[in-house]
Amino acid sequence: MPVKLTIITINLNNAAGLKKTIESVADQSYRNLDYVVIDGGSRDDSQQVIRNYETFINSWVSEPDKGIYHAMNKGIRKATGDYCLFLNSGDWLATPTILENVFAQDPEADIVAGDVYFYNTQQKAIKWHVPSPDQLTAKTLFLGTLPHQATFIRRAVFDKVGLYNETLKIASDWLFFLEALLKYGCTYQHYQGTIAYFNMDGISCDPATESLPRREQLAVLANEYPLFLPDYERLDQLETQSLQWKQSNEYRVYHFLDRIGFISLGVFLRRIKRVIQRNLYRKR
C-alpha cells in the first residue's frame, strides 16, 4: 500500500507565496496526499487563494494562532498520513515528480531528509544548494539543523517525542530533531536529491533575527543539557576560526598554490629530505 504523506502549510498574510506553494503540491504526480493548510487569520487574499484551490486541500483553517510552532502543531494534530512534510507558505516542491521519486525508494527511517535550494526572490536566483548529511552526528545538530521543507517525519514520531516547543520562536525544529535523534534514538536516512525551494524572505533569513537561533539554542542547552554547552561553544569557536581562515588573503594564496600543485610538490620534497636524512644517519 502506498505511503500516505501529509503536507502541512502554514501561512500568515502571504497570499502570493501561499498560491505558489499550493500549486506546487497540486502539480504532484504522487496522489496519496493529505494536504493541510493552517492560516493564521490573514487579512490579505490568503483565504480566497485557499478557496480557489480547495479541491486540492483536505483540511484547512483560518484563525489567529500563537506563532509558527503553534500553527505547525495544529497541522500535526490534523495529519492523517504516515509521514509529515512542512512546506510553509512561499516554499515550493522542486519538481512535479519529486514526491513520487522519494516514495518509490520505499523509505523506512523515522526521519528522511533531502536537500534544499535557498532561493533569493530579490535576485530571482538560487543562492545556495544545501544538502542534508549522509550520516547524522551530534556535530550536525550543534552547527545547524535539518531543513523542515525537505524532511519527511513519521507521524508516530510526534507521539513519541512530542510536538514542537511553542515557547521558542525559531529554534524549535532544531530542538525537536536534537531530541528525536539523540535522546529517543529515531532513525535517519538521507534522500539523495533536492526536495524543495526555500524562500529566503522568511524570519530565519531576516538580518534582524540573525542571532536569535543561537540565543535560543544556548538557552535550551543551558537549561536542559548543560554538559553539552562547553562542547557546543568550543565547536562554534572552531567553526568561526575556520570561516575566518577561509576568508583570509593567506588562504587565497594557499588555495592558489595548492591548485597549481606547489603544496603537493613541497610535501613530496620534504619527504625525500627525510628519507635522505635517515639514510645518512644510518651510515654513521
From TrEMBL:
Q: Does the keyword Transferase apply?
A: yes
What keywords would UniProt list here? Answer: Transferase
> What domain of life?
Bacteria
Q: Name one GO molecular function term.
A: hexosyltransferase activity
Stored InterPro entries: Glyco_trans_2-like, Nucleotide-diphossugar_trans
Transferase among keywords: yes
**What protein name is recorded for this chain?**
Glycosyltransferase
